[in-house]
Every structure is written in structure tokens, then in C-alpha cells.
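Batch job 17 of 40 flagged for manual review because the log was empty.
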Amino acid sequence: MGRIVDLCGEVAAAADEGPEGLVLPPDAWEQFRGRWSDEDIEDAMGFVKDSVLQSELVEAADSLSARLVEILGAWGSEKGFADAVRGEATIGIDVIRQLAHRLDRLEEILEVYRDEGSPDRKGFDGLQRRLIDLGIEKDMRPDWEKQGVAESLPEGNGRDDEDEEED
């Protein structure tokens, strides 16, 4: 196993960026052929390409995720969330909930890859708490009906079919 890791390191050092991704220059290929089979060299190139693509994917996902945490966090305040529930946000509460759910999972995964700290999650975490509460608020806060808040909750209390199947 150590030998193939060494080859991958050498291939990564020798590879150049071409129009279709990483390529191994012909002189480097010939140099490797003296010690390795073509199949081993191709495998090493595949590992190196996958590693570079994974790094680029993680970097892009991290950047996108940080921005979405910031954007969705705007609906984490009491007023912002109430506006979203009433349909006064630029996107609907169901879309906000779906994005927040998927973004939360992406954030968990990205923690493994991050060299630096996570984005500021204060607003986003507030949104998550409010979304969790949304499904139980009619039962937990009957006084809302007196104030007219219950009528502003979306049909199904912001839950999708996936949540309803679990009940």
C-alpha cells in the first residue's frame, strides 16, 4: 500500500493542469513506466484527480454553505420567522425548512473537512429551533389562537409528507 501512495504523491507532483483536468506529461509518464505498470500509473492518476475534485467540491460547498447559513439565519429572529410563516418572506416557509434541513446536514459533513472555524450559526440555529417548534406550536401554545397567530401558520404546520409518514 505504501508504494501506491508514493506513486500517487509523485504523480500529483508531476501532473499539470490541462484543458480537461490533470494530465501527466509524456516525459513523466515514461519515467514512471520504468518502475510501474501503465495500469498502476492510470490508477494513481485517477486517485489524484478524484482527490483534487473532492478538494474543490469541499471548498465550493463550504463557501456556499457559509453563505446559506448567513442568508437563512435572517429568518432566525422572531420577526423574521413570523414574516416567513405569514408568507411575507421572499421564499416560502416550506422552502426555508427544506433548505435548512439539508444545510444542517451539509454543515455536519463539512466540519470534517474544514481547516478554519465554522460560519456564525447564531441566526441559523435560531431558525432551526423555530422550525422544530413550528410543528407543535398549535398544541403547545393555545393562546396563539386568541391572538390570531395560529391562522398564520402554513397548512400542515410547516411539515412535509416525509415528516407526516414518521407520525
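Reviewer: the log was empty due to a logging misconfiguration, but the result itself is present. The longest helix spans residues 38-73. Unflagging and moving on to job 18.
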